Amino acid sequence: MNTIRFSSANDIGPLNPHMYAPNQMFAQNMVYESLVKYVDGKVVPHLAEKWEVSEDGKEYTFFLRKDVKFSDGSAFNAANVVKNVDAVLANRQRHSWLELVNQIKEATKVDDYTVTISLHNPYYPMLQELALIRPLRFLGEAGFPESGNTSEGIKAPIGTGPWVLTDYKINEYAEFSKNENYWGEMPKVDKIHVAVIPDGESRVLAFENNEIDVIYGDGSISLDSFKYLKETGKYETAVSEPLFTKSIALNSNKGPLQDINVRKAVEYAFNKQSVIDNVFYGTDKLADTLFPANFPYSDVKLTPYTYDVSKAEALLNDAGWVLPANKEFREKDGNVLELELCFDSANNVHKAIAEVLQGDLRKIGVSVKLIGEENQLFGQRQTNGDFDMIFSDTFGIPYDPHAMVSSMRIPSHADYQAQVGLPMKKELDQKIEEALLSTDEKTRQELYDYILTTLHEQAVYLPISYGTNLTVYHKNIKGLEFGQMNSEIPFEKIDKE
């Protein structure tokens, strides 16, 4: 039996299609599918063969494929779509970061293979957000709990996707077999074995010992390790096109960073080009803005915070943080200027960037305490605001900018907490809602101009680079491609000789 051996820093989780951490997105994407897919910048049919939109933009009618079965052999149909949408809407508050869930009024079965989704308002990113990995994907009837409320958990991960979970030991491994009932192109190999290896160096060792076939993803190993494996000449390597923005959120509502001058000083003190050259070895491109200019509505004229130590020092002096004689760090009212920087300890790239930023800020008299924590604790800090600075990458295509700015309005990620100290936070949230619901292209662009300019000028984000996915694989692996989304790994296309 042909098996691709892969590894993940974290356990795959319960594979609930409608929920978030600890569910791993790449694994949810293997098992569950969406009505439409996002491919090369366009929304294309998937579980729905086609769709029609009402004249007022508030009603989408989807015509479903008739040849789709779940992995347990049961039929995928309109009743199932309605049941899954209802389950998501029943837990609407948890999903309120995604404006589409707020806008869905109801899903209605027209006939066995036709379903209508009605909206409260016309919503321009409707189809893009239906393509996302979660939460609007489809669980088979036998997977639902008796209550029908999937937020309480599921009975089994039964999906229509190319893979089915067939063996699993929590925090050790998961094994996926190809779904023999799959309606689409069948996977090239029989199984995907996912070993849980939290440490990047251990992952490299396992790869060199031929215990895993593929290393894939941003942060899965250090860039020093990627460079080393590439330079051996023994393996195949590849770097994707930029997919998202690596950034750090600066908390406008906590400690010294409540002062805009301190936030701006951090921006000017960070030598990003050094990170691009010496940490990324050129695999990422330097980012001056939260979204790259070629993303929708993101070509906004903004003045970059260029590396300027003297400007950073002057801003700190203006903020009253002075450097006493014979001391390393600045003080104000008897307090030392210390900031905490939180990162996911399993992300090897974030750790390397954190160490560079720590060194750069030391040069201007700012002490930085690094806090590396496992993924779940790191995620809790993002949502509860217990951070000064925290890594907060953008979601990438096809989420950005609309889904990313939508999520800024509630404490679902680091964004809300980082912005809540801004004097114009209420107005910012209002403009986001207007942009998402606007039906006029010119008005929508003007609103995005305001949103992105305000966030930039308020120095809430420290954009670092336009991030890529990396992969290293043995030479007997064929057909490996990068996913369209950051968390999507197209395992079904991979073959092994």
Structure, described:
The structure is a single chain. With 497 residues, this protein is of the alpha+beta class. The chain has 15 helices and 23 strands. The strands form 7 sheets. It has a 6-stranded mixed sheet. The chain has a 4-stranded mixed sheet with strand order 1-10-9-8, with no helix packed on it. A 4-stranded antiparallel sheet has the order 4-5-7-6. Helix 7 (260-269) packs antiparallel against helix 9 (309-318) and helix 14 (425-437) packs antiparallel against helix 15. The longest helix is centred in the C-terminal third of the chain and has 17 residues, at 441-457. It is globular and about 75 Å long. The mean pLDDT is 96.
Report the end-to-end length measured between terminal Cα atoms.
12 Å
Q: Spans with pLDDT under 50 lasting ≥5 residues? A: none
Q: Provide the β-strand percentage band.
A: 15-25%
* Biggest sheet descriptor: 6 strands, mixed
Give the overall average pLDDT: 96
Using DSSP, what is the number of strands? 23
> How does the helix and strand content classify structurally?
alpha+beta
Strand order of the largest sheet: 14-20-13-19-17-18
Helix content estimate: 25-40%
Q: Evaluate the radius of gyration.
A: 23 Å
What key attributes describe this structure?
29% helix, 15 helices, four-stranded mixed β-sheet, single chain, 497 residues, globular, alpha+beta, six-stranded mixed β-sheet
Give the arrangement of secondary structure elements.
Layout (H helix, E strand, L loop, with lengths): L2 E6 L16 H7 L4 E4 L2 E4 L2 E6 L5 E6 L13 H13 L8 H5 E8 L2 E6 L6 H5 L32 E7 L3 E6 L12 E6 L3 H9 L5 E3 L6 H10 L3 E4 L4 E7 L9 H10 L2 H7 L6 E2 L22 H10 L12 E2 L2 E2 L1 E7 L3 H15 L4 E7 L1 H10 L4 E3 L10 H6 L6 H6 L5 H13 L3 H17 L3 E7 L2 E4 L3 E2 L16 E2 L1
Parallel strand pairs: 1-10, 17-18, 17-19
Antiparallel strand pairs: 2-3, 4-5, 5-7, 6-7, 8-9, 9-10, 11-21, 12-21, 13-19, 13-20, 14-20, 15-16, 22-23
Helix pairs in contact: 7-9, 14-15
